[in-house]
Design goal:
Number of strands: 9
Keywords: Membrane, Transmembrane, Transmembrane helix
Strand order of the largest sheet: 1-2-3-4-5
Largest sheet: 5 strands, antiparallel
Strand content: 25-35%
Helix content: 10-25%
Protein name: Pilin/secretion family protein with methylation motif
Number of domains: 1
Pfam family, one: N_methyl
Length: 223
């Protein structure tokens, strides 16, 4: 009596087809995981870049608001109408691709050029730096992570005529210092940076800062 042969298990072809399908599924899962890791890395780099820009911009804005602070501001008030008031020696502001401004931060009244009373900013290569003290520059950005491409401070000024507050309401002919004006100043901060780990990732930060200490230019006409 002849027994009938019955196949059990999988044939070699079926095993190869199953292995191929499994490899395709694993490859798809690995590709999806790699894309997830790449997107996550991109998100972390972008968040870090935004954080670097925001931190630098906030620090610059806080320092700019202090520009022109004068500890002895009472000396800027005239004791009597015919005596001119003292001018603030710290209200100078130089802007452009680099900026410098003054604030009376110590207890000793000094000149406007006193190193301790001057605070500055500059773009040194791809580094944003701040002047701390007399001639000492410190990095505000991490050069290993972010490359600062451009930095600019743009002043915005408006004037208020102070001549109506003078004792004499008419300026002499040919005077270059009359009438006195009050300068209401703002500074627009422009900062552009590129991530060192991803050259395609570029971000900008913009902020407008109103300087709390107005400047006075000119003098009242002599009485």
């Amino acid at each position: 009596m002849t027994s009938r042969f019955t196949q059990r298990g999988l044939s070699l072809v079926e095993l190869m087809v199953g292995a191929a399908v499994g490899l395709i599924v694993v490859a798809g899962a690995l590709q999806l995981h790699a894309r997830h890791l790449r997107d996550n890395r991109q998100l972390l780099i972008e968040a870090r870049l935004q954080q670097e820009l925001r931190g630098a911009t906030d620090l610059i804005a806080r320092q700019l608001r202090r520009s022109g602070y004068w500890q002895h501001a009472m000396a800027g008030i005239a004791r009597q109408p015919f005596e001119p008031a003292a001018s603030n020696p710290h209200d100078g502001l130089t802007t452009g691709v680099a900026g410098a401004f003054g604030a009376d931060v110590d207890d000793v009244e000094g000149a406007a050029t006193d190193g301790e009373a001057r605070w500055g900013l500059r773009l040194n290569g791809s580094r944003l730096q701040a002047r701390i003290g007399a001639g000492t520059w410190q990095d505000l950005s991490d050069p290993g992570f972010v490359s600062i491409e451009s930095f600019e401070l743009r002043p915005v000024e408006s004037e208020v005529d102070l001549l109506p507050r003078c004792v004499v309401g008419t300026c002499p002919a040919g005077s270059t210092s009359c009438p006195p004006v009050q300068l209401i100043r703002s500074v627009e901060i422009l900062l552009r940076a590129r991530a060192s780990a991803d050259a395609s990732l570029v971000r900008e930060a913009r902020e407008t800062v109103r300087l709390r200490n107005d400047a006075v230019r000119g003098t009242c006409p002599p009485a």
